[in-house]
Design the sequence.
């Protein structure tokens, strides 16, 4: 009887530990925001093809993040948007 009780307790402890380990690290329903959608075959976000404001924002981001050791960006066939009617923007 005593041996059966000990086996039952041992099985309960192992089962509880397994269940707790399986439940740990759950996502909690939040997701990591994805990065910007890139123009196919490039390292350039699609916003640079939609508006000149997107081009300026991308340029500012790159200027702030660029160093002598950073890898060059692939521009590929990205077509940068232009706007002849808007005022020049500071970069």
Sequence:
């Amino acid at each position: 009887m005593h041996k059966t009780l000990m086996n039952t307790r041992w099985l309960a402890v192992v089962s509880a530990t397994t269940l707790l380990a399986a439940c740990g690290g759950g996502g909690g329903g939040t997701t990591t925001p994805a990065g910007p959608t890139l123009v196919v075959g490039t390292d350039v976000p699609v916003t640079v093809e939609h508006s000149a404001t997107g081009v300026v924002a991308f340029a500012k981001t790159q200027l702030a993040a660029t160093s002598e050791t950073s890898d060059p960006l692939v521009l590929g066939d990205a077509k940068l948007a232009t706007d002849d009617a808007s005022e020049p923007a500071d970069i």
